[in-house]
TrEMBL record:
Positions of region (Disordered): 43-62
Membrane-spanning segments: none
Domain DUF1918: 1-57
Pfam families registered for this protein in UniProt: DUF1918
Name this polypeptide is given: DUF1918 domain-containing protein
């Protein structure tokens, strides 16, 4: 997985009833766009994450 600052990340719920989380990548700490990513989620929470198979990156629209 590769991303750039400004891309959106979507984390799908892993269990029944768990909602989807969305956020914006504000910092890429890995080499060449690889994780970990510092993400600001829609609820204002910021966290460092290593996305798993339940995540997808949406490229920023120019």
């Amino acid at each position: 997985m590769r991303a750039s600052v400004g891309d959106r990340i979507r984390v799908h719920g892993r269990t029944v009833g768990a909602g989807e989380r969305q956020g914006e990548i504000v910092e890429v700490r890995g080499e060449k766009g690889r994780p970990p990513y510092l993400v600001r989620f829609s609820d204002g929470h910021e966290g460092l994450m290593f996305p798993g198979p339940d995540s997808e990156v949406e490229q920023r629209q120019e």
